[in-house]
Design brief:
elongated
C-alpha cells in the first residue's frame, strides 16, 4: 500500500500480501531516514515559531500598548519562519523515497534535490500551494510597513494579498485531506496523527480567512469591518499552526 504522507514523513510503506488483512512495514535506509528526520524537525520548528510570533503580533493590540510598527515587526519576524516551513515541507516531497513500480513493495531513495515540478502528485501540489501562500503573506507583511496609504491602497496592497494567502492555505489544507483520505471529500481518522495535523492546520486556515475578511477597510469610514475579530482570528489561527507544528515533531521516522 503506497501512501505518500507516511513515505515522506515516516519513511515507510505498508506491504500486505494478497488476500491478507495485515502485512509488514518496509522502511527506507538509515541515511534517507536521517534526512527525513532533519527536514521534518526544521519544518515543524519553523511553523511553531512562526505561529507563536503571529499570535504575539495579534496579542499586542489586544493586551499591550504597542504601536502599528511594533505589531508589523512581530508579524514580519513570524513571516520569515512561515515561508521556511513551507519550502522545507516542499523539500520533504521532493526528496522523499518513492515507490518502485513492480518492485514488490520497495522504497527507492532519491538523491538530494532543491526543486521538482510534479503537479500531478497531490503531495507536491499541496505543499507547493502552501509555500506559495506563505510567499503571498510575505508581500502583505512587507506592505504593512508602508505609511500614508489611502484606503484603496491599503485594501489593494495589504488586504488583497492577505485574502489570497488565506485562500491558498485553505486549498493546501483541502489537498492535505485528499492525500490522507484518498478522496475529494474530507474524512475523519481519529487514530491518524497526520489527520489531526491536517485538521488543526485547516482550522487555523479558516480562522485566518475570517480574520482577513474582518480586516477589510471600509472606504466610507476608513475603519476595519471588525478589528476585534481580525485580531482574535489571527491570534487563534496562528496558535493552531503552532500547535500543528508541535504535533508534526512527532510525525517523523
Amino acid at each position: 500500500m503506497w501512501e505518500s504522507r507516511p513515505a515522506r514523513r515516516r519513511g515507510v510503506i505498508a506491504v500486505h500480501p494478497s488476500g491478507a488483512p495485515a502485512g509488514r512495514t518496509v522502511a527506507a535506509d538509515e541515511v534517507t531516514l536521517g534526512r527525513l528526520r532533519r527536514l521534518n524537525t526544521v519544518a515543524a520548528t519553523a511553523f511553531v515559531l512562526g505561529g507563536a510570533l503571529f499570535a504575539a503580533g495579534a496579542a499586542v493590540p489586544q493586551f499591550g500598548s504597542g504601536d502599528a510598527t511594533s505589531c508589523a515587526s512581530i508579524y514580519f519576524a513570524g513571516g520569515l519562519f512561515f515561508p521556511t516551513g513551507g519550502y522545507v515541507s516542499l523539500l520533504q516531497v521532493v526528496t522523499a523515497p518513492r515507490h518502485e513500480p513492480g518492485g514488490q513493495g520497495r522504497l527507492v531513495a532519491r538523491g538530494w534535490r532543491w526543486w521538482s515540478y510534479e503537479p500531478a502528485r497531490v503531495d507536491w501540489l499541496g505543499t507547493f500551494v502552501l509555500f506559495a501562500g506563505t510567499l503571498v503573506f510575505a508581500v502583505d507583511l512587507l506592505d504593512s510597513f508602508l505609511r500614508g496609504l489611502s484606503v484603496q491602497q491599503v485594501n489593494r496592497l495589504i488586504w488583497a494579498p492577505d485574502v489570497i494567502g488565506c485562500l491558498l492555505f485553505l486549498i493546501s489544507g483541502h489537498l492535505a485531506f485528499v492525500e490522507i483520505c484518498h478522496r475529494a471529500r474530507p474524512c475523519v481518522r481519529r487514530r491518524s496523527l497526520g489527520w489531526w495535523i491536517a485538521a488543526v492546520n485547516q482550522i487555523g486556515s479558516v480562522l485566518f480567512m475570517v480574520s482577513a475578511l474582518a480586516a477589510y477597510t471600509r472606504p466610507a469610514t476608513g475603519g476595519l469591518v471588525n478589528a476585534g475579530i481580525a485580531d482574535w482570528g489571527t491570534l487563534l489561527g496562528a496558535a493552531c499552526f503552532s500547535a500543528a507544528g508541535l504535533l508534526q515533531l512527532y510525525e517523523r521516522p
